[in-house]
């Protein structure tokens, strides 16, 4: 085409050099002529437009399927090695779960429903990534890596087209041009990087982002102008996303989408969940890979060691002396495989109070361990705890792992006062025998169903009112003064559903006599104030929030039933 004189030259160059810069893979290039031409016609302007290939003009879920599944990453990175190893080790379980879903449900992914997905863990890129990689090798947090591994396996089993990249747009190609991805899974670090690289185009693609956010982001922290003016501004948040675009490790708040991960502790046979039988020794394993986590816990662990042989996997830096009690048998930092071998023989998994809300206790419970953890009194929150300070949440953390405490509980989870020796001793002696237990939501099938539901129904690019879940699911509850919708719905064995708030945002829905109606920006609205009989309506849909309470308001709550697990 005379209008594109350098097209052939550019094609030849990229066929040979497409791996020279990670940003080419970010745009879907895999070395094939098709992918090169697609890039040169859509992302840059060196080749003629290709008929039927204008992604930006096509409706949601009807993108062309010319892309192959491919993962491009730095394979020597410890974090990528961990992710790859986990996916490979669990691949047979994922495949079997996918086959079972296909057999038991008509909700399989059709060709039209396949989406083109970018997975971009920003925490693995740039200077942040270097610090994270160093921590991984010293026993640092692996929870995020577990989630990225399981998400990539889940999306692949569901049949979507996938690119995993730890460094998109880092070099010469222009990230400001249209992206060919239906969905972009990233984290807070990745979100900030993409905003800087995309410029004004960022707003256009904002509805396609899904943010892996371990601890959750409540609506009051997410809506920037409100956060700034009402004291909710933190280092995180203020992105003006739909709160359901944030995807959490545990179901912290219904305002966000619970993504989760998969516990390796059980297998499935047929259609029933069956525990694996593990021969247990009188062993306790302490959950704490860093020396500092043990401070102030000597008496707590000592009581446990009087009943059970007590082991640990604390990382010891070269030339550094560990200050562990003499009765602890420390194995040092173990590979995931060796750690799990030890867990299979372990009777009791011992939480020290930190790290908060990680995946390890769920894995341990799935391998037949009982989890014991400290109770926090008063609860930890951003008001009194350095770790949660600055996190975009008002949650009150009652123990090291609130999910395990509230959703699993005894006999698999014991939450104790670690300053009370008799409380600890009584709990340890009561833990005589147990079976492995994995909540349904942390199995491969559970995660597949959840992610399938999100991809099928969550469309934040549409301007229309949400239709999922349907209005027929709505159960309206007027909360007592000072209670959140999360707690009110849970008390009735229901769950708060933020997508249904718009049905309640009218004076009629309150069902009360309103002396005045106040439409304003307030994350506690819609609600009713008995003083002056004021009815408050929500002016900004991004502020609809299940979280949050105030002694002056009775909140109007959209609850719904849910399938257990």
UniProtKB/TrEMBL annotation:
Cellular component, GO, one term: Golgi membrane
GO annotation terms (biological process): protein N-linked glycosylation
Domain of life according to the entry: Eukaryota
Residues annotated as transmembrane: none
Source species: Neolamprologus brichardi
Protein name according to UniProt: alpha-1,6-mannosyl-glycoprotein 6-beta-N-acetylglucosaminyltransferase
EC nos: 2.4.1.155
Alphabetical UniProt keywords: Glycoprotein, Glycosyltransferase, Golgi apparatus, Membrane, Signal-anchor, Transferase, Transmembrane, Transmembrane helix
Molecular functions (GO terms): alpha-1,6-mannosylglycoprotein 6-beta-N-acetylglucosaminyltransferase activity
Subcellular location field: Golgi apparatus membrane
InterPro entries: GT18_cat (IPR026116), MGAT5_Glycosyltransferase (IPR052105)
């Amino acid at each position: 085409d005379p209008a594109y004189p350098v097209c052939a030259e550019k094609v030849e160059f990229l066929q040979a050099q497409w791996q020279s810069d990670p940003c080419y893979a970010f745009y879907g290039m895999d070395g094939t002529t098709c992918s090169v031409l697609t890039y040169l016609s859509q992302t840059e302007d060196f080749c003629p437009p290709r008929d039927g290939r204008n992604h930006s003009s096509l409706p949601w879920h009807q993108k062309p399927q010319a892309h192959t599944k491919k993962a491009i990453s730095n394979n020597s990175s410890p974090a990528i090695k961990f992710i790859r190893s986990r996916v490979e080790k669990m691949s047979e379980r994922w495949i079997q779960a996918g086959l079972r879903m296909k057999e038991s449900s008509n909700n399989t992914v059709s060709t039209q429903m396949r989406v083109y997905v970018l997975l971009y863990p920003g925490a693995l890129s740039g200077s942040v990534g270097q610090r994270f990689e160093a921590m991984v090798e010293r026993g640092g947090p692996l929870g995020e890596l577990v989630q990225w591994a399981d998400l990539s396996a889940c999306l692949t089993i569901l049949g979507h087209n996938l690119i995993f990249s730890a460094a998109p747009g880092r070099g010469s190609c222009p990230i400001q041009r249209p992206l060919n991805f239906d969905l972009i899974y990233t984290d807070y670090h990745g979100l900030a990087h993409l905003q800087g690289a995309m410029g004004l185009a960022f707003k256009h693609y904002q509805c396609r982002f899904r943010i892996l956010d371990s601890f959750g982001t409540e609506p009051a922290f997410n809506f920037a102008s409100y956060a700034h003016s009402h004291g909710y501004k933190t280092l995180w948040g203020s992105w003006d996303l739909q709160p359901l675009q944030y995807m959490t490790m545990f179901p912290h708040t219904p305002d966000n989408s619970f993504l989760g991960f998969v516990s390796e502790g059980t297998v499935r046979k047929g259609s029933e969940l069956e525990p694996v039988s593990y021969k247990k020794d009188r062993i306790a394993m302490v959950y704490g890979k860093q020396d500092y986590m043990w401070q102030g816990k000597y008496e707590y662990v000592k009581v446990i060691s009087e009943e059970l042989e007590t082991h640990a996997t604390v990382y010891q830096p070269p030339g550094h002396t560990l200050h562990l009690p003499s009765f602890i048998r420390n194995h040092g930092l173990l590979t995931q495989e060796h750690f799990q071998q030890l867990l299979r023989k372990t009777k009791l998994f011992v939480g020290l109070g930190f790290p908060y809300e990680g995946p390890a206790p769920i894995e341990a419970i799935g391998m037949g361990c009982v989890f014991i953890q400290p109770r926090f009194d008063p609860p930890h929150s951003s008001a009194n705890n350095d770790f949660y300070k600055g996190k975009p949440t008002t949650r009150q953390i009652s123990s090291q792992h609130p999910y395990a405490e509230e959703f699993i509980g005894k006999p698999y989870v014991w939450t104790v006062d670690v300053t009370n020796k008799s409380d600890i001793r009584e709990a340890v002696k009561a833990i005589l025998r147990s079976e492995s237990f994995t909540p349904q939501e942390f199995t491969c099938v559970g995660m597949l169903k959840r992610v399938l539901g999100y991809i099928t129904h969550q469309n934040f690019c549409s301007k229309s009112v949400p239709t999922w879940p349907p209005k027929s699911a709505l159960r309206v509850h007027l909360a007592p003064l000072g209670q959140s919708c999360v707690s009110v719905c849970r008390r009735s064995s229901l769950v708060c559903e933020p997508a249904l708030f718009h049905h309640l945002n009218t004076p009629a829905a309150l069902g009360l006599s309103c002396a005045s109606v106040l439409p304003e920006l307030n994350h506690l609205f819609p609600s009713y104030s008995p003083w002056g009989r004021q009815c408050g309506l929500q002016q900004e849909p991004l502020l609809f929030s299940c979280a949050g309470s105030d002694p002056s308001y009775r909140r109007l709550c959209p609850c719904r039933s849910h399938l257990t697990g």
